[in-house]
């Protein structure tokens, strides 16, 4: 049974969703003013795997990831570029999908944009005001932190210490320095929407609460994000939502740790900032994905060439095993024999993989069991001239299961027509080699190489695989 470390209770708990068999999962998405950075890539990848594992385990998952498409950064960048905020959002969201798809991140069920949910946001702010949890000053609406006694229950911070040492922007109109903005009054040159408090736009925190509850109801099963979002963003989400509904907002709060670069937290001020787009220029997207999954999500990881190279080598070993297995299935005779021990090994590898994933989705531990299976399969292929049908089925199911969860092999990502084209070119190359037409043979090899196809000539024929 899956268990998750719940940051709200600060302990690992069995996962029991609100509605049996179904999961409402909200994961904080990017502010779409620029390419997302490699630090964002970590939660996008690891929580993609958690979502995949829940689906693999039989849950029907509604996965919601928002796009923040209105805030100060959006407005400033759009003005710098001489385009509208909406045009900037459209371009950046398209860039997001290009990078996310390359990293193997499965599309969410819903991608709500803040600007498309102004009606829900205004309704939530109005409800908070009507129930005494919010107040308006000159067109700005603030949440009254003092009206919510359990404020800071997620972060565990001391409210009195926060108040006395607050560095929150000084504002004489606030009742409390920790009170936060729900609705901002319009400023010159900014987009705005009509509201009961005059033209303006939503604050950052209210967006997620309104959109999450619209698609997942008053109580979510899972809400995820980076640890940097715990305070104040997620703390404020809880206050808004629970003050409005009187119900628990989220059952399981889960957060990933930071990405480090040169053993320091990545930040623009330190000059060690890297976007996912830039990282993809230097490293294979799947190697980046493997790297992110090679450590437990609650442990910080140091992003750098050594770690990525190790991840790439591990990924190549996995791909080579799958390639060798599929080639053997296509080119060796099938037989029956004494294979019980191999079947037992493969079943144990699968059980161990599931056990690791059930333990707070420990992807690092799970991958360790995957590579134990790789060793078992490699040994079987090396020592067997023929293949047993039972072993073929067991190994095939294992690889497809771990790919369904981890998304590292992309077994079903290429169409049969792509494979047929490659096979046809290989057949032409073999014919050219047989006719000693090495010019044509080399040209076909180069053509395939340009498509990322690597050929290996063996005594049994030519094997091919896609470059990682």
TrEMBL record:
Its cofactor is Zn(2+). Zn(2+) binds at residues 28, 208, 233, 237. ATP binds at residue 268. GO terms for biological process: cysteinyl-tRNA aminoacylation. Keywords: Aminoacyl-tRNA synthetase, ATP-binding, Cytoplasm, Ligase, Metal-binding, Nucleotide-binding, Protein biosynthesis, Zinc. The keyword Transit peptide does not apply. GO terms for cellular component: cytosol. A motif ('KMSKS' region) lies at residues 265-269. CDD domains: CysRS_core (cd00672). A motif ('HIGH' region) lies at residues 30-40. HAMAP family: Cys_tRNA_synth. This is Cysteine--tRNA ligase. The lineage of its organism: Bacteria, Thermotogati, Synergistota, Synergistia, Synergistales.
């Amino acid at each position: 049974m899956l268990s998750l470390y719940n940051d709200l209770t600060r302990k690992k708990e069995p996962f029991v969703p609100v509605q049996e068999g179904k999961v409402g999962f909200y994961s904080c998405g990017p502010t779409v003013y620029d390419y997302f950075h490699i630090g964002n890539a970590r939660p996008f990848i690891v929580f993609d795997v958690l979502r995949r594992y829940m689906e693999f385990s039989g849950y029907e998952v509604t996965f919601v990831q928002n796009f923040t498409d209105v805030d100060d950064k959006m407005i400033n960048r759009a003005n710098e570029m001489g385009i509208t905020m909406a045009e900037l959002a459209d371009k950046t969201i398209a860039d997001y999908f290009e990078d996310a798809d390359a990293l193997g991140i499965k599309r969410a069920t819903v991608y709500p944009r803040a600007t498309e949910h102004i009606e829900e946001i205004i309704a939530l702010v109005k409800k908070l005001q009507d129930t005494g949890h919010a107040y308006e000053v000159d067109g700005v609406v603030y949440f009254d932190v003092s009206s919510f006694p359990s404020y800071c229950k997620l972060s565990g911070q001391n409210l009195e210490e926060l108040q006395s040492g607050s560095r929150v922007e000084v504002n004489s109109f606030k009742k409390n320095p920790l009170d936060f903005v729900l609705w901002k009054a319009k400023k010159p040159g900014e987009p705005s929407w009509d509201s009961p408090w005059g033209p303006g736009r939503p604050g950052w925190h209210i967006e997620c609460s309104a959109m999450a509850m619209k698609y997942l109801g008053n109580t979510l099963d899972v809400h995820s994000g980076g640890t940097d979002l715990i305070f104040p963003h997620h703390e404020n989400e809880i206050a808004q939502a629970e003050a409005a509904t009187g119900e628990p907002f989220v059952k399981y709060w889960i957060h990933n740790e930071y990405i480090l670069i040169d053993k320091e937290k990545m930040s623009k001020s330190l000059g060690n900032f890297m976007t996912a787009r830039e990282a993809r220029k230097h490293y294979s997207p799947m190697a980046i994905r493997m790297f992110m999954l090679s450590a437990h999500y609650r442990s910080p990881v140091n992003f750098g060439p050594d770690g990525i190279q190790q991840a790439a080598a591990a990924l190549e070993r996995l791909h080579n095993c799958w390639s060798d297995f599929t080639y053997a299935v296509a080119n060796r005779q099938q037989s029956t024999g004494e294979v019980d021990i191999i079947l037992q090994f493969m079943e144990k590898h699968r059980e161990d993989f599931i056990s690791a994933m059930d333990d707070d989705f420990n992807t690092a531990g799970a991958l360790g069991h995957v590579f134990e299976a790789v060793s078992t399969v490699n040994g079987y292929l090396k020592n067997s001239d023929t293949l047993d049908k039972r072993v073929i089925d067991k190994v095939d199911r294992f690889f497809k299961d771990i790919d369904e969860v981890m998304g590292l092999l992309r077994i079903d990502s290429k169409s049969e027509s792509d494979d047929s084209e490659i096979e046809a070119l290989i057949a032409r190359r073999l014919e050219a080699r047989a006719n000693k037409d090495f010019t044509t043979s080399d040209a076909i090899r180069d053509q395939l190489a340009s498509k990322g196809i690597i050929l290996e000539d063996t005594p049994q024929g030519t094997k091919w695989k896609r470059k990682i």
